């Protein structure tokens, strides 16, 4: 006797109510949990940003006051070097739980960072030349104010568009 295992049993009709599973409703995230997440994110952004600020100030002062470079050249080059080091910190520390490294993510980071460098440079120019903050102390105050204002912009765009949550990932993206 042979048994045909490829045969399927006939399906029994079931009422519609039994076949449709209820969709689970996600419980709302309590406000204090969301607040804690934002606080941790801001703290990580601050650690990476703080190291970037240190790099920015060290390079800026070395170029402007040590090597006597032009102020705008010193501020732009210092910002670009800090931007490059910040990418590694954001990618591997602050936003490591977000979408994997993609060409789009890298491009967005450097485009928005470039906009941040332009903002920082314009603000520095206004302080250094417009407000007369051109001594060793004044130039550092102008640089600090420009970094703070440009960093607020960077925080918003990095978390919103560059280092998105995993749900925004493309399958198979590198």
Please provide a written account of the structure.
Helices cover 68% and strands 0% of the residues. The protein is elongated and about 65 Å long. The relative contact order is 0.12. The mean pLDDT is 81. The protein is mainly alpha-helical and 174 residues long.
Residue fraction in strands = under 5%
What is the mean predicted local confidence, pLDDT? 81
- Helix % is 55-70%
The rounded Rg comes to: 26 Å
- The structure class reads mainly alpha
Largest sheet entry: none
Distance between the termini: 55 Å
Number of DSSP helical runs: 5
Tell me the number of strands.
0
- Give the low-confidence spans: none
Which term fits the overall shape? elongated
Order of secondary-structure elements:
HHHHH
Main traits of this protein?
174 residues, mainly alpha, 5 helices
Brief description of this entry?
The chain is an all-alpha fold. The protein contains 5 helices and no strands. Helix 2 (31-66) runs antiparallel to helix 3, helix 3 packs antiparallel against helix 4 and helix 4 packs antiparallel against helix 5 (136-162).
